[in-house]
């Protein structure tokens, strides 16, 4: 946004620059004083809430591996996988047919899988687990704790921040509000020590009815609301007052920059599609916002398939694959697919064994990365044997990860522009692994 | 008629406000922000009993509340008080008001369910409509508020799953919470555990014993969440809610996978009541689940604190032993007590406050553990909740968005011409939906700390849903539900629109002036803690908006009030 847009925004809102609160001013200031990058990059985190049974995305297709798989998964086994042809030489591996739309992206080199990923603070063996050695992540198998571990990039401490926000804070002194955007509300990934997510609703940000128009009512109400919010005294009141003040200022700025976005390729009606469509619109307008680096957080729920997995899980994967494909199309049409990388996270993988109708909370899982900068058509990390009582199985088919979430995340952060030293700062346990990053990004 | 009655109460309340409420605590005048409470109120006192340890002291008397005190108590203990309720309560002591509430008959929700015209099946919208009508109009307000709090601990949700098509079952689940709100926690735990709605939500309904050949083992979902969320939490706690530490200073986990598997076996063999089949059962979402012993795991079950349920104990006895094992755990008092405090009075209770409430959970004074009536009484009557002059600066909590709207609609006698309260997409406008959390982890976590409190020990759970998207959703909702829904501006075609009646407030302005209305708002919405700045903002509306009709002026005034930090911070 340039100064002229900023001023016209003030006029539109019916306020003079003198009327702006200090928070509004600082929001505006950060628009004007944006650190200028030579390039633009965005990371889009797609969090699959509940724990995706992601071992069931990539399937062994022959030999003992397949026999083990069929024996462990029983009625939950996928029997008609789509054969993948990765660049690397790997055991014959198939794709869950519900993910068919991803096959094309994979073959086009725009999509890769990372196998055997999970929360770890150091390389971990079955013996470590059985003897409860101190580096075992705390509260394994608990949804919110494991989600937080993924997103914090370190074990829980008294003050917790997310690696997404910390990454922005390493890149910039005072990150631009539009560099940190959530389509799914507050989350651990985007809370830093100076920045927290600017939350947008999945279909974009609403205009503020009370302040709309230029008549006395609109002007007086806006001024009065902003005065009151700024006058919050007590700490709990300030939590609300400061939060809403920023929310209003940032929403007005965002809506002004979204006004001129040209139509994008079609997206579906699903919640994930709608969120990704809004992400695409924000990316399309990013040159107006001036944030050289952006992180986005979107979510898809329903993956906690304790029951009815046979019917539910394919539906979830199909929706996921369709949304990915739509988003990829939008990035291509905007000409930014090399600059935008999308990736999944999920609480944990699930048990290989069944509870009769579904699966329970596991540990390691597989993840998806997509974008022009991804070294696609390949599978990274480890394809863990889907066999019960293997050396990776802590019990019931909960598999010990062979790639830590931090290695996976650090690979993305490195692409985003962080140095090796900064990666170690961002992920304190990274130094315990031989390999700090994987090879899936250009 | 009703309006006339309300006006008399209004007038008497304004008088009370003016003359100090006629109580012995006339000192808490407006502007001081303080609320001089009587000396330390007694802790839990079951009806008709002398408080424990006080036998030697003279019988306790309970002073009549001032209007400010009554307003504070009712903000903590109702779905949002009206002026009439505050006025009536100010003639009572806090003790008497709470006991009067305890004695109110239960307003169950399921009997209030109304089908939409022309429909022969209830829908999700009917469920939400029922919640609004019951929450707004029932006399047992304290029970409704406590049940709403419990619904955020014993979470079930019909967001994103098939329970959405089971509105009767969902309403019945809420009724179960209402039924036990002032009962015993052990009974509540059992009722929740055997609810077919909970069984569906956390998938222990239809859960079978292991089948080794097929690699099938019992579903662990309920076993995990009943411990993590409904009873003991993840870490061992002291009575005051602080975590216990081992010799290395580390926290101590309450359970591991061994207990998960033990409890998972407990919760096998249960399905819908009176089903004739185990597979593809007949679905009764109302009555408690029943057991099919042949599907129950009769293996040994390791529970907490080294307790083991022997093999072949039988499913019903095993369940009883397991729920007793959870119920008797030392964590339950502080774990549940603290969360109830957070839902009712303050996000950041002192350790001593938590300890006092936990103590009452452990023993209500008559040797009974888990008496929720005594716990609710202890939470509301605690000196930290009642005596604002002694409370820390950070005392209080952010008002939940649904409770903000509920208070407005209660005070403004909201109605629709069709009789329905249809509200669409509460998740976007309020960030919360009754029994509609995005997951079993509720809308917010009890330990959520927003960036603005970083570096302090303080949390603000409700801030987790006050992000820029939902805050603006709520801002717009308040604006439209006030300014665009004034009853007197509508003809007979408003249909399902939820209208607000601003005429009683207009009468106050006409008869006593704008200052009287603002002072009335001070009492009803702000428990007489309104700052001079806010008072000036509200008074000035009647100047800058003078060209608009009076009821619009009032709507703008109310809008500014409910979005103000002073209103949103319940103190």
TrEMBL record, chain B:
Q: Which UniProt keywords apply?
A: Signal
InterPro entries on file: DUF1800
Q: Which residues form the signal peptide?
A: 1-26
- Where do the record's region annotations for Disordered lie? 26-59
Name the PANTHER family for this protein.
BLL7424 PROTEIN (PTHR43737), DUF1501 DOMAIN-CONTAINING PROTEIN (PTHR43737:SF1)
State what protein this is by name.
DUF1800 domain-containing protein
The organism of origin for this protein: Motilimonas cestriensis
The root-end lineage is: Bacteria, Pseudomonadati, Pseudomonadota, Gammaproteobacteria, Alteromonadales
């Amino acid at each position: 946004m340039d100064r002229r847009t900023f001023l016209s925004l003030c006029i539109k809102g019916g306020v003079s620059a003198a009327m702006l609160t200090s928070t509004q001013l600082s929001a505006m200031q950060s628009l004007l004083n944006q650190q200028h990058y030579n390039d633009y990059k965005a990371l889009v985190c797609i969090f699959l809430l509940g724990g995706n049974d992601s071992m069931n995305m990539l399937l062994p297709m022959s030999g003992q591996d397949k026999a083990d798989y069929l024996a462990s998964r029983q009625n939950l086994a996928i029997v008609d996988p789509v054969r993948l042809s990765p660049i690397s030489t790997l055991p014959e591996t198939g794709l869950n047919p519900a993910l068919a739309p991803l096959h094309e992206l994979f073959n086009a080199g725009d999509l890769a899988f990372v196998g055997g990923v999970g929360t770890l603070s150091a390389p971990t063996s079955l013996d470590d687990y059985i003897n409860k050695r101190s580096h075992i992540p705390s509260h394994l198998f608990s949804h919110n704790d494991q989600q937080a571990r993924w997103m914090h990039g370190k074990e829980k401490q008294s003050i917790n921040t997310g690696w997404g926000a910390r990454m922005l804070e390493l890149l910039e002194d005072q990150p631009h509000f539009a560099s940190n955007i959530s389509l799914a509300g507050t989350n651990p990934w985007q809370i830093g020590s100076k920045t927290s997510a600017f939350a947008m609703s999945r279909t974009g940000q609403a205009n503020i009815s009370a302040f709309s128009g230029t008549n006395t009512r609109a002007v007086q109400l806006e001024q009065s609301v902003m005065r009151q919010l700024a006058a919050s005294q007590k700490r709990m009141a300030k939590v609300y007052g400061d939060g809403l003040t920023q929310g209003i200022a940032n929403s007005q700025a965002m809506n002004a920059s979204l006004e001129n976005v040209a139509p994008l390729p079609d997206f579906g009606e699903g919640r994930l599609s709608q969120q990704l469509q809004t992400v695409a619109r924000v990316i399309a307008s990013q040159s107006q916002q001036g944030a050289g680096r952006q992180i986005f957080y979107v979510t898809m729920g329903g993956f906690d398939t304790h029951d009815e997995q046979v019917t539910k899980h394919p539906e979830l994967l199909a929706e996921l694959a369709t949304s990915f494909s739509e988003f990829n199309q939008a990035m291509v049409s905007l000409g930014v697919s090399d600059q935008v990388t999308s990736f999944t996270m999920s609480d944990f993988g699930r048990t290989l064994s069944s509870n009769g109708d579904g699966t329970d909370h596991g540990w390691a899982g597989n993840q998806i990365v997509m974008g022009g900068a991804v070294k696609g058509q390949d599978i990274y990390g480890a394809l863990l044997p889907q066999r019960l009582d293997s050396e990776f199985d802590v019990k019931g088919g909960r598999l010990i990860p062979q790639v830590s979430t931090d290695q996976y995340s650090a690979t993305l952060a490195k692409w985003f522009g962080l140095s090796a030293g900064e990666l170690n700062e961002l992920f304190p346990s990274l130094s315990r692994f031989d390999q700090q990053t994987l090879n899936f990004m250009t | 008629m009703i309006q006339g009655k309300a006006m008399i109460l209004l007038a008497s309340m304004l008088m009370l406000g003016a003359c100090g409420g006629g109580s012995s605590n006339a000192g808490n005048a407006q502007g001081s922000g303080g609320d001089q409470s009587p000396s330390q109120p007694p802790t839990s006192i079951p009806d008709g009993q002398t408080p424990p340890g006080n036998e030697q002291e003279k019988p306790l008397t309970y002073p009549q509340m001032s209007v400010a005190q009554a307003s504070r108590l009712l903000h903590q203990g109702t779905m949002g008080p009206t002026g009439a309720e505050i006025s009536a309560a100010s003639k009572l002591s806090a003790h008497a008001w709470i006991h009067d509430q305890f004695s109110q008959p239960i307003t169950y929700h399921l009997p209030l369910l109304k089908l939409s015209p022309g429909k022969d099946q209830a829908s999700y919208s009917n469920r939400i409509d029922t919640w609004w009508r019951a929450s707004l109009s029932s006399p047992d307000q304290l029970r409704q508020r406590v049940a709403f709090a419990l619904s955020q601990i014993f979470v079930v949700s019909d967001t994103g799953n098939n329970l959405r098509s089971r509105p009767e079952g969902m309403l019945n689940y809420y009724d179960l919470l209402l039924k036990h709100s002032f009962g015993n926690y052990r009974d509540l735990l059992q009722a929740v555990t055997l609810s077919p709605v909970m069984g569906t939500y956390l998938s222990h309904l239809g859960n079978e014993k292991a089948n080794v050949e097929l690699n099938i083992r019992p579903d662990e979902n309920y076993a995990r969440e009943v411990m993590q969320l409904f009873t003991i939490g993840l870490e061992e706690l002291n009575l005051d809610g602080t975590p216990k530490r081992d010799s290395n200073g580390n926290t101590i986990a309450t359970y591991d996978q061994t207990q998960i598997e033990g409890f998972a076996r407990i919760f096998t063999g249960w399905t819908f009541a009176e089903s004739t089949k185990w597979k593809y059962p007949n679905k009764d979402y109302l009555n408690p689940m029943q057991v099919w012993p042949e599907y129950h795991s009769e293996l040994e079950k390791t529970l907490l604190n080294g307790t083991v349920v022997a093999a072949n104990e039988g499913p019903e006895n095993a369940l009883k032993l397991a729920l007793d094992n959870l119920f008797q755990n030392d964590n339950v008092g502080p774990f549940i007590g603290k969360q109830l405090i957070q839902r009712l009075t303050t996000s950041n209770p002192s350790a001593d406050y938590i300890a006092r409430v936990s103590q009452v959970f452990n023993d209500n004074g008559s040797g009974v553990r888990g008496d929720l009536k005594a716990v609710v009484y202890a939470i509301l009557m605690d000196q930290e909740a009642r005596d604002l002059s002694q409370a820390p600066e950070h005392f209080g909590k952010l008002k939940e968005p649904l409770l903000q709207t509920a208070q407005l609609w209660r005070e403004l006698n909201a109605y629709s011409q069709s009789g329905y309260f249809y509200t669409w997409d509460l998740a976007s406008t309020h960030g919360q939906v009754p029994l509609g959390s995005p997951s079993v982890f509720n809308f917010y976590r009890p330990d959520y700390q927003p960036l603005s409190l970083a570096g302090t020990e303080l949390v603000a759970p409700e801030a987790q849903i006050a992000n820029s998207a939902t805050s603006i959703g709520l801002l717009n909702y308040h604006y439209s539900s006030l300014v665009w829904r004034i009853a007197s501006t509508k003809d007979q075609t408003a249909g399902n629109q939820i209208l607000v009646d601003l005429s009683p407030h207009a009468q106050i302005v006409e008869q006593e002036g704008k200052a009287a209305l603002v002072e009335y708002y001070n009492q009803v919405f702000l428990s007489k803690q309104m700052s001079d700045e806010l008072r000036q903002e509200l008074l000035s509306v009647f100047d800058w908006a003078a060209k608009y009709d009076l009821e619009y002026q009032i709507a703008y005034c109310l809008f500014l009030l409910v979005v103000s930090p002073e209103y949103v911070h319940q103190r």
